[in-house]
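Subject — a protein and its fold
Encoding — discrete vocabulary of local shapes:
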Amino acid sequence: MSDTSQQLGWEFWGSELKNRREGAGLRQEEMAQQLFASRTLISRFESAERRPRLDMAIQIDQILQTDGFFERLCRKLLEASPYASYFAPVAELERVATKICEFAPTVVPGLLQTAEYAQEVTIAANPFASEEYVKEKVTSRLERAHMLKDATRPEYWAILHENVLRVPVGGPAALARQLDHIAAMIRERKALVTVIPCSAGAHAYMTGTLKLMEFEDAPPTAYTETEFSGTLLDDPAVVKQAQRAYDLLRVAALSPEASLALIESAAEDYRRCASTT
């Protein structure tokens, strides 16, 4: 499904929510109270500025007694997304986040990837995939990254483990271009990226990737991911633990200036390696 078709689908979902809420005699404030959400969030659902998680669609069906209508339509729209089912809600949350903080232990985060790098990691994970599949994955990843170039972009922090700089994904020349891209994002002040050096040893989050998101009208969330699944966390106590882990990762990382120097040095090393092969 194209982005335009997806947007039209969510606009229909939102207009139906408004129609059926009003038909049930509920104000936005009243529905928000039953969902433990804000009135602004309900308003943004209805205008398709914000897309709901599946569990919230199920709750809406229960409140409005709509016999699974909003759940079924939400599932259909999420399944038509170019993203894995567990990641689709996260991609939507990124669009409305005011701040995004990521930790990446082995791979450049999607929001910082070049097309070349994204293609290499996609093919590595899907060696028998069609060209169409690979192109769709790369395109959707680059479209997500456009948010960092917008005037209203979120504040974006990324902590990379030095391992990310040392695995020559796509070969030395490709990784040099990827690291140059990260350095440019830093110098243009579109991202604040720091690096945990290998010499730091053990650190606060040894088990996988971590993404924290903050919003204007909703509580913060955390997202963790492994190779085959991801988990979106919104329990306040769990999110607080994740935030503490991220704070400890910040402490272990090099300063922004030292991190940029390391990234640019690694890029230059790979350029020299590429020129001699």
